[in-house]
Amino acid sequence: MTTVAAYAAPAAKAPLERTTIERRAVREHDVLIDIHFAGICHSDIHQVREGWGEAIFPMVPGHEIAGVVSEVGPGVTKFAVGDRVGVGCMVDSCRECENCRAGREQYCTGGNVMTYNGVGKDGEVTYGGYSEKVVVDENFVVRIPDALSLDVAAPLLCAGITVYSPLRHWNAGPGKKVAVLGMGGLGHMAVKIAHAMGAEVTVLSQSLRKKDDGLRLGADHYYATSDPKTFEELRGSFDLIVSTVSAPLDFGAFLSLLRTDGALVNVGAPEEPISLNLFSLIGGRKTLAGSSIGGIRETQEMLDFCAEHNLGAEIELIAASEINEAYERVLASDVRYRFVIDASTI
Ligand SMILES: [Zn+2]
Ligand SMILES: [Zn+2]
């Protein structure tokens, strides 16, 4: 076991503070990673504040981890000391179910192990990336290509893969009109990735406040959803809408923006159930769908794609002592577009 410094929430809704945690000794297939950067995801805040139900405390959040391998177990074949690597939302899964065998570990029916606020197969609570080091099975570690700096790569491990997976699955590409709903941590990566895939990209945001950024990052069009004219003008326009927002939406209104056979895919979710008139799906054979992160193979594919197209996240680098302040700013949508913790300050 190794004692490492970390930032943890000692109890639900409590501010995060510096502490120490134990990392397990490196096992046969483990790699020890010196964490260089950890992104702050909105879901870290949900979990620290128990917005998604009962959680485990103390909690060390962080599932957008970028670092360098500093030790490998004797059975490790995929990584060597010095490799630049990342860890996302999962650190294990059953590895046997239909989904795991198909590389869709995020939909593991046997139960996958979350990077933090989870319990590993050994019964130990998992602690995330707001720390100096982490020990992870090599099968849940991905390689960060040299073309990506580790700081701008960190947010790709959750925000990047969460939007890449549905864009791929629903065939974003040349000739396809894709709308990105919400221009935040996930939305700004969706714009970059959909543009790089060759799709015609439209941002649908509450206001035009971030329009210049949206166009600079690759959007072809930018509309305010607060303007009713947007819904008249864009009626029947899109093959795919990726919704990154977690506020309640008028789904009927957004479904009216799809072409025949179009899909509205949710990667953000409101806490309350929605009500929907199903005629908004029946007319035009439309799909209302959801999508969760991506599998390990797909996460590697996403990193390789982002490296090839030079797509890092837009980040604000912070010291660990600024985490609590950063949380408040995330809640106020006052970040362009992802906070990343410099782990050397932990
Ligand atoms: Zn996340
Ligand atoms: Zn499984």
TrEMBL record:
Domain spans labelled Enoyl reductase (ER): 14-341
EC number annotated for this UniProt entry: 1.1.1.2
GO MF entry, a single one: zinc ion binding
Catalytic activity: a primary alcohol + NADP(+) = an aldehyde + NADPH + H(+)
Coiled coil: none
Residues spanning the signal sequence: none
InterPro entries referenced in this protein's UniProt entry, alphabetically: ADH-like_C, ADH-like_N, ADH_Zn_CS, CAD-like, ER, GroES-like_sf, NAD(P)-bd_dom_sf
Highest taxon of source: Bacteria
Cofactor: Zn(2+)
Swiss-Prot/TrEMBL keywords: Metal-binding, Oxidoreductase, Zinc
Matches recorded under PANTHER family: ALDEHYDE REDUCTASE (PTHR42683)
The family this protein is said to belong to: Belongs to the zinc-containing alcohol dehydrogenase family.
Name under which the protein is recorded: alcohol dehydrogenase (NADP(+))
Native organism: Streptomyces griseoaurantiacus
